[in-house]
Amino acid sequence: MTSTKILSIALIVFLAGVGLSASISGALLKLTEIAGLENKIAGDLEKSLTTINRFYCGGISYGDSLVGVSFSFFTGEEQPLTRDGIKNTTRDLSSRSVAIPFLRQLSRVHNLSEIINLYFLPYSLKNLLISVSSTELIRLASSDEWVGTIVIVKQNNLSIQPDGLINKFIDYYIERLDVLVDTEPLQNTAGVIDYIDSNAAILEINQISMWRVWLYGAAVQINLGNEEKAARIINKLPEDAREIFSTKVFGDDEFLLAGDIFIIVSEIDIAFSYWAYGMQVNPLNKTLEERFEKYDKK
Prior knowledge:
By secondary structure, the chain is α+β, with helices and mostly antiparallel strands. The chain contains 16 helices and 7 strands.
C-alpha cells in the first residue's frame, strides 16, 4: 500500500472517529461537480490531499489548467461568524492549493518522502510566494457538515517564487524540534531527522543547527528503543560541551537532555560535562541538581 493511500485512509479514519458522517470523497465529488469536472478528478484530488490544521487541501494538473480545493468539516459547535471564517479560509487555501503539483515535483527532485511531505506541503502552502493573474473558475459548496472551495486557473497565469523554499522549511523544522518530538509521531520525526542528517552538506546546514538535529535525533531513537543508533548520533556532539555553551544554542533543558542520553549510552564523563554547562545556563534547574546528586554517589 502506498504512503498516499495510507494518508487518505488515516484522514477518513479521523473523520469517523469524531462522528462526522460526510466523507472526504463525498466532499470532493460535490466540489468537482459544481466546477463541471468529471468524477475521476475527485479521486485524483483525494490522492493529492494534505492538511493544514482542520483544513484539507488538494491540487492537481488538469490539461493546461490547475485545480485546487480546500474544505473543512464542522464540529457542530461553531458560531455563524466562525463558519464564515472557515469558509473564507477554504477560499484562500484553495487558491494556494493550485501550487501543490509544483510542490510535489519539488519534493521529488529533493527526494522527500511522503512522511516529510506531511510537514513540507503544509509549510509551503502557507509560506510559498504565489501570484495568480486571473482565475478561470472559483466555486463554493457547503452543507450542514462541511464547507469547501474549488479553484481552477490556467498554468500560464500562475507565478511561483520557490527560491530557497526547501532550506527555509528545513530551518523552520529544526527550530521547532523541541516541540515536534513531543507532539508528532516518533517514527515521522525520525524519518525527517534522518533526511536532514544525510543531506546536511547538500542543504548547507551549519554545524550549530546540526547539534540540535543530533540531540533530538538521539532522543527520538532512545524513545524508539534504538539505543545503538542513539549512541552513534549523540556522539556526533562535541565531547567538550563548552563549544556548544559558547554558541548559546542549547538551553539548560537541552544540556540536561544531552547529559541524560550520554548516561544511557554509558558516556558518564561527557554527561557530567553537559549537565555542568546546563547548570551555568540556569543554576536553579532542580532536575540538574538531582542528576549530580544521584550520579556523584556512583
